[in-house]
Each structure stands twice: as C-alpha cells, then as structure tokens.
Write a structure and sequence with these properties.
The complex is a heterotrimer of chains A (154), B (316) and C (667). Chain A has 154 residues and is α/β, with parallel strands linked by helices. Chain A is built from 4 helices and 4 strands; from the N terminus they run βαβαβαβα. Chain A is 36% helix and 15% strand. The N terminus and C terminus of chain C are likely disordered. Chain C is globular. The chains are: A alpha/beta (154), B alpha/beta (316), C alpha/beta (667).
Amino acid sequence: MPETPFEPKIVAFLCRWCAGAGADLAGTSRIAYPANAVPIRVNCSGRVEPEWVMEAFRSGADGVFIGGCHPGDCHYVSGNYKTRRRIYLLKKLLAEMGIEPERVRLEWVSATEGAKYARVMKEFVAELKRLGPLHLEREEKTMPASPVLPRVGS
Amino acid sequence: MPPRPRIAVYWTGGCGGCDVSFLELGPALLDVLAQIEIAFWPALVDTKRSDVEALAPRSIAATLVNGTLRTEENVEMVHLLREKSELVVAFGACAYQGGVPGLANLATRDEILRRMSGNGFRPSPPPGGEAEDAPPGLLPQAKSLADEITVDYVVPGCPPMPPLIGLLLGALLSGDLPAPGHVFAHDKALCEECPRTREERKLTKVVRPHELVPDPNVCLLDQGMICLGPVTRGGCGAACPKAGMPCTGCVGPTPNAGDPGLAMISALGSLARAGEEGPGAFAAEDRLLDALVDPLGTFYKYSLPAYVRTGKRSDR
Amino acid sequence: MASPAPSAPSRSAGPRIGVFVCHCGKNIATTVDVPRVVEALASHPGVVYAARHEYMCSDPGQDVIKKAIQEHRLTGVVVAACSPSMHETTFRTAAEEAGLNPYLLEIANIREWCSWVHDGPETTDKAIRITRAMVEKVKGNHPLEPVEVDHATQCLVVGGGISGIQAALDIANAGYEVLLVERSPSIGGRMAQLSETFPTLDCSQCILTPKMVEVSRHPRIRLLTYSEVESVTGYLGNYHVVIRKKPTYVDPDKCNLCGECAKVCPIRVPNEFDRGLSQRAAIYVPFPQAVPSSYTLDEESCLGLNPLRCSECAKVCEPKAIDYDMPEEMIEEDVGAIVVATGYDLYGKERMAEYGHGTVPDVIDGLEFERILSAGGPTKGEVRRPSDGKVPKEVVFIQCSGSRDPELHKSYCSKICCMYTAKHALLYRHNVHDGTAYVFYIDIRAGGKEYEEFVVRAMEDERILYLRGKVAKVFRDGDKVVVWGVDTLTGKRIEVAADLVVLAQAMVPSAGTEELARKLHIACGGEGFLKEAHPKLRPLEALTAGIFLAGAAHGPKDIPEAVAQGSGAAAKAIAILAAPTLTHSPEVAEVDEDLCSGCVVCVPQCPYSAITPGDVAHVNELLCEGCGTCVAACPSGAMRMKNQTDAQVKRMIQVALGAEPVEVGRA
C-alpha cells in the first residue's frame, strides 16, 4: 500500500479586521491555496493566547498560524504589537522545549492582501512538510489530571 | 474517645525539605502529634514497608506524599500507600507538579545515567554483585503524584509554608473536608498579598535578582525582575517579594491560569516596552526579551513534568 | 430539503444545537459535499437538528432556521455559509424573530474560507471541521443583551474640499453641529484651483465659492482652517478629537483684505495655490475668494517672529489685525461621527524620469495648466508657458502619466485624466486659435453623463490630434520640448517639437493621508487611498464604526462623484447623530472578581482606557471594544471574553484538529 503523503494539520487564528478579511478576499478572488488550516476567527490578534498555540500542538497540530493587521493598522491600535512580543517569547520557549519555532507563524495580512494570505498559507504548508509531523499529542496521564488539578474553569 | 486518625508521611524523590517543614509549625506540632497516630513516616519514626503492607486497605486516614516520582520503587510505594489510605495528599511542589527534580526531564534517562556514571554511579549491579545492591530502576521521566495515583488534596509550596500546612491539618483533624481536588492555598494570585505598589505597569528591562538591589516599595516586575507573582496562588503571604526576591512560582498557578509559563509569556509580552510601540521599537523589544534567559527553567521551575512535553523523546 | 438529524439526544438539560448548511447555489455545493457536512454534523454531540438549503439567506432559507428553533427548542444555532461579514446580522435577526437570543447564533465560514479556495475532497473535510468547531463555540455561548450608549451629536469633517464642504453643509442643514477642519488657510481644495470643469465648462470657482460662503456663514458649522487633527480617541458615537489650530497671526475678524501687508513684505516664496508658477509674500491670502477671508502669516517663510525681525506688515496694517503673539490653539471636542475628505495630490512629475524628471520648465502637470488657464492665475488666463512667457503654438498632452504603469509607477487608472485632458486641449484651442494640440492616450475612458459627447466634441469640432500610444521620452532641445512617441494605430514613430507638454499625472492620496488614517485607526489600501468597509455594499464607511469616507481620499474621483459621496457620507453620519442612543456590542471583556488579584497587568493593555485598576480590576463595557488583548494578557485567567472564553476556544481547537467531540456536562 503506498504511504499517504504527510499533510500537516494547522490551526489558523485570524483577526476579523485584517487577516480574516484578507482570507475572505482570497475567497472572493478565488485564489486557491492548500486546505490544511482550519481558521478560527478572533476580533484581534491580541486575543490569541500562547496557551492556544500549545493547546493546538497538544491536540495534534503540526503548525499554528496567526494572522494580524500590519503594524500601524491594528483596528484596536496596538493588539498586534502585544502578539508580536508574546510570539517572540513563545518561540524562545518552544526552542528550549525542542519544538521548532518555525511551527508558529505570525504574519501581517491586510484586508486587501487576499493573494498574500494564499501565498503565506502555501509557504507555511511547505515549511511544515519539510519539518515533518510534530506528534505532541496530549498524554492525559502526564497532564495534571482532572478533577484533582482543575486547570481551566469558566 | 474516638481512635486517633492514622497518618502516613512518605518521601519519594525530593530533598527532604517538606519533612523538615513540619518543624516550622513550632510548638503547635506537639499538639498535632498528640492527636494523630503515625502509621508510617520513615523520616521521623522507624517504620518499614512491611508495616504498611500489613495494614488493611484504607486503614490510613491520610497519607502525605512529598517528592517527585523518579524511580520504580517510588511508583510501587505510592500505589501501595494509595491502597492503604482513605485520602492521599500531594504535599509540596514535587508531588504536586514534579518540582525542581522535574527539571531533569529536559534530559533523557540515558543522558542522566551517562552523566551520573561518570561520577561513579552504578546504574546496574556489577557482575556477580548482590541484587539487593542495585539501586531501584530510574523512570524514563520524572512524574508528579497525580500521574500515577488519584490525589485527593494538594498542599503546595517548596516547601509548604506553615499557614498552608495548618489549613490541611485543620481540615483533617476537624473532619471538615473540602471537595476532592482542593488545593490548600488561595485562588487569587499572591499580588493580592504583596504590599509593593504597581503603578508603572510596564517591563522596560529584564534583570536577574543578583543584578539589582530593588526599590523596597515598587513591584519587582516593574523593576525588571521576572516575578511570577501574578500567575501564582497566594497563601504564602508574598514572602519572597516582601524580602526583595521575585516569586519563582512554588505554590503553583492560580486555578484559572492554565499553563503558568504560557500565561507569563502572554503577560510579559504584553508589558514589555522599548519606547513607543511600533515597528521602530521591534528590534529593541526583542533585545529586551532576549535578556530573559532560559524561559523554560524560569517559568517551570516547579512544574516541568506537569506542563511540558519536551522534544527529548528518545526513550519515551 | 431539510433533513432531521437521525438521532436527537433527548437530554433536556444539555445543549440543543441546530446546524444549517447553505449550498449558496453552486458557490459552496460545487466543491463541498453539503449532504455529507449535514450528516457529519447531525451526529455531532449536542446537535439535535441539521439541515441544508439552496440559499440559507433567502426568506425560505431563514424560515427553515426559524421553524427549527421553535420546533426543536434549539439553544444554539450554527449557520455554515458565507463570511460572517455578509450575513451574520441577517441570521441573528432571524434567530431573534424566532425567540432565540441572537448571540447564540454563529456563522461558520465555509465559502470564502473553504469552498471558494479549495477543490479536492479535503474541502468537505475542512468544511466539517470549521462547522464542528463553531458548534463547540456555540455550546459555550450565553445569551447577551446589547449595551445602550449615549452619543455626541456633532460631527467632525476633515478636509475642506468640495466633498468635505458638501458633507458639512448637508449635516449642518439637517440640524447638527459640524466641526470642519482644513489644514490650509482656506477651504475650497483642488476645485478652487481649477479653471473650468468638464463636461459643461462651468467656471469652477463660480460654482464653488457660493458653497464656501455658505459654510462660512452657517450657524452650525465651526470652521477651523490652518488646523490639523492631532489625535482621535474613543469609539462610535463618542470620539474625542483634539485639533491643533496653527496661529495665522492675523485676526480674521479685523482683516479687511486691503493687501497692504503683502506689498511691504520683503519675502517672496513660490505660491502653492498657483503650483509655484507665481510668487507670494510671507503674509498672503491664497486666492481672492478665500474663506475665511483673511490674510495668513506663514511663519515658515517670515523673516522671524521670535525674536521679531521685521514687523513691516504690522506697521502698515490699518485695522491692527496682525498679532505676532497669537498662540497655537488645541481644541478638544466630542463628536459622534467623523467624515474624512482629505482629497488628493498629483503624483510628482519629478518621478517621471522619462519625461524629464520635472526639470524641464515647460513640462507641467495638469493642475499647473489649470492655473495657467485660470483668469485668476499667474498669466491671468492667457496660455503662456512658464520658461519664457511665450504663447505655445504646439502643445502635447500626455495621458496616463504615472497611471496604468505597474512597472514604473501606479498601476491604477486615475479616472479623471481622459476628461480633463480633453478639456485642457479644448480650452487651449479656444485660447490659441492657431495652436496645435496633440493628445497621447492609451484608451479614452469617458464613462459618465455627457462625457463621451464632450470628448467627441474635442476630437471633431476642435480638431485636436488624438494619437493612440505611449510617449517614450520627453527632452529639452533649445527652446523646444521634444516628444518621442509611437502611434500604435499606424505603427509610425512620432516626433513633435513642442512648446509645452502637459502631463496628466496620476492622482495619489494627499500628503499625510496615512498618518491621519493611523490616528483614526482606519485602513489604507495598497496605494494609500482610504479603504472602505466593503467595496460594493459599504463604499462610504471605514472599517471603524462611525467613520465615513468622502471624495478622492478614497480613490480617484471627479467632482460629481466627490459631491455625491460627501452627501452620502453625511447621510450616514446623520443616521448616527440622529439616533436616540447607540447600541454597543455586549461581546466584551469582564472580570471574574473571585480570581482577580489586582495585579494590574491588564490596565495598560487597553487602548480605550476601559479598565479601572483596584483591588479587583473593573471593565467599563461601554468603552470596551472587545479586542481581548487584556484577556490574553491576564496571567491568572481572571479576565474573560464574553462568548469567547479560553475554554470555548480550546474546544474549538481540539475539534478543528479532529478530536472526538466530548459530551458537554461532563465533569
């Protein structure tokens, strides 16, 4: 049986004003790109928590994409700057953990850059194919076990 | 008069500090000892594994385990104690989330053994040697107590502070027990207890404790020290920040913080400023954050096994 | 085509989610196997009803949703269809009509983000993942009620060109106060510089100045010229604006325009209004009909005010209007809406290396030619060339200079150049009867009422030579300007030894547009023009609520379009100013007071100052815009985003990656 080629799994967090609208424009313009990423819309890239990135990795993602507004264009003024610094630190941590920092990609995509969204998606999928699968699936045993250690409420 | 409750205290892979921490109760310890029967406490009284094995299931009222799980023997013992105990308490940071010995998970077991054998340590009995001479087998990775057995309560801290020990003992002796899973510490972060002022809420530099004599009144984070106070449960009275040392997170994260390292990354990334935010500041911001050496060791000093799956998986 | 889910869980306490998948005609159904999506979602835990429809947004489609909400007592709805920017409101309104709180309905975007961009079998798989993730979100949603907000009832209009003037007048005439800010000393904008307008050849100033005067006399318009927007904070209905009014050093109430000051002023600098073709003093009035009708002392070119070096102008000023100590003013106002009408510049001719880099004096741009044609211009309306004042006998007009040239310049069409070039050539021929006019063009774009007729008139009646082709090079040769081009219809090389060359330069956004956009938190497109919320359906609105676009700042436009957009933007602004209250989204951040330690990490994250520090932080839900930056920053998870909690997003992540959905209600 021929081995099926590795198709990386990606979660993409897109801000609604720029990257999400850019992804909309890629659709309206019918610019094709690989279907590996499942997008999740947030108001601002500043809403994206480093914890979500790790949650995605633990849930089987090979890469995580975050799309925000270009510097100076953030609909909420400066959320993208916060995200940039958080992701910078997160990548340092990932490197220490032995996870390739390239598996997290932060890109500025404006509402007019449908073609850019498609292009970076293609690039990211190619990059992840080069890196190969991550296999950081959750191992319940070694995670703090519920209910003794409730981790996240709300 | 009802029989005094049987208590066991066991020490797995730890430094012994948790056992010593009981002494911090002072004269109150004598009152406590008078109200309990010690079933098993190798650090304090001469009790053997066989004594535990002889006990009926669930005949120990509560077993307090301190230390990380590192050897096969640790695992056997905690399973045995679980069987014999009504309640099991993870006592101290190691049992709770792996503790300082858990940082060893950054290396594989083989790497650890190679390093130790260089220091004269024998990983297996020499040819012809007695089997009893052999040290117990090392687990591939350090584990927290909850990784192996069901844990009813947690007393966090490295070591647990007297007020937190007091909360546990009070509950055990009064029989007024909280819901399973309870952590004997505050739900709010220790900033609540910290007297330092927080006005200039930004991080303009990152310094290590030895690089700065901090202002006695201003938040250490605002002075550039990586204080994990905002993500760490209170209950310790903010003892370290009060003494001018940043919190290193020994009490563990607040109940809704999630992964404390990732929560701190988010907070520190948000607070970091190198002048006016914008592309012109990007390079300076990166340099500022680069001064945070070893984020893994900083954020997970007491909890690596609980949160971090490292890329080192050669023997997992 | 509605199909009920095969087995509906009967637990009354658990979630009862309905999933509605749209075919969107062929738009989704061609690449996504819609029945399979319905089937997959029908068996998703918590989903009690799943259906599909040809067009969910149609009335019958919406009826399917409304009926199911009532019949199946749904506690949440996911519509898998187009982008939420299209129909989120449509479907949420429908849900509300059926008795379901609108915030319990979410859109799964399987068109723009899926069916339109993929075509393999993985397209259906991705559509299922997107929809399942959204079901997980809806399971965690709570019913919310919109927040009511009071608002300011005056409007800020930025830019005093024709578009801004029209917007200001329409808003003021509707009964609302207007703050009209213009950065130059007079309103009037580009239209005031034009000689005649196409296609009617009306005198531009003659039709404009009555409107300028109306602005100056309007009781509800506060005109701030020589002023710029310093900062903008706040949100829809409640913007706080700070305007910096530079000192003109002349009291407009006292100035009687006698002009004695300019006569004695020792300084002469190029006159911006005449595009540098004439000179003005340091104290000047840009043009006779300026509004406000007052002189302005240009601090930059004056010999010096501090210390005072000259003071000749004050000595001759009879009404004592000159005040060298006039301070700069900072004016702060609250406005409910903002109209941005900051206009255009011409693409610099110095960028045209092939046309002489702007160094050949007799190669001019269209606006310079307008000034030459203008009766009030540097040549009093006689066509004379800048270098030696001679009447040019051969004039070459070059269209698309800098436009439609993606390799070297701007890729877009500047839209008005075909028309004004025809007008220029025609007016030239009216002025210089024995002159010859050549027009180099790529295409003639004369879409507009009576535009084509106007161009035909120029070609046929005025015998202007239209040559289809691009000009390769323009250079000076003695007192001639030589133009090398090709007539692509005959294939012949053409060389004209012209006396004057007029470049129809591309339109670009006026200088400072990007900076202003940044202050307003609105977006510019790739070429720097302000970006509208939707190119077809919301062409007057910026993406930021309460900010509207008018005129050429939004893209190349002619006068009627700029006026129409000014009126349109005014109507949009009036809709806000006239509303009794505005509603604010309830999807905002909130603090869990049991978990907040008062660490204050959140406070500096908020761009709207919506968080008050204290023992526990407090969020002002009127000020919160819902970005969630504070939520991510909160180290102890005490700050929450309503209907987008961490727990919800984590479930979305797990399900998006294919984790088996877990029954909610589990410990």
